[in-house]
Amino acid sequence: MMRLLVLSAPSGAGKTTIARRLIQRHPSWRFSVSATTRQQRPNEVHGKDYFFLGREEFQQRIASGELIEWEEIFGNLYGTLRSQIARQLQEAEGDARVIFDVDVKGALSIRAAFPDEALLVFIAPPSLEELERRLRNRQTESAQVQQTRINRARMEMEMQGQFDAVVVNDIVERAVQQIEVLLQ
Questions:
Q1: Domain boundaries, the chain
Q2: Are 10 and 161 contacting, i.e. CB atoms less than 8 angstroms apart?
Q3: Residue 175: beta bridge partners?
Q4: Does the predicted model carry a pTM greater than 0.90?
Q5: Distance (Å, rounded) from C-alpha 164 to C-alpha 108?
Q6: Alpha carbons 94 and 85: distance in angstroms, whole number
């Protein structure tokens, strides 16, 4: 059984929204909390949304092999702690899944580490124009950062063929249902 559901998408495509909706619909499923060096946003909780680490601590964890995957994105480090995956797999019961919300390279690293456990799903925006609109409407970043995210999205979209499935997030509920079908 594929117990690791790995969602990946460009920023603004809706992977976090879909992950949260899946957790609401399946209370036994768990969300894998990533580590990051980026600034904590208002309303984010350490240990729930991310493990917010200093750059030096993050780099020490890389050096000691504590991260299954990591990458520097937009000047910040992001990664998945091995201890998180091990703990959540141990706690998962029955048909429970562990959901990951990671970048495309992180998704491929998780598959390499857990080839029999991971299902990789690429969440695609309906179009690059819609993705740009979503990023601008968030109003959480400067125009320069938004443009950097859009440029990165183009590269990430080219990698979707390396995933087990691609789900277009034009309507969140439909995307969630398509992912549930993949897991049956």
A1: 4-182
A2: no
A3: none
A4: no
A5: 11
A6: 17
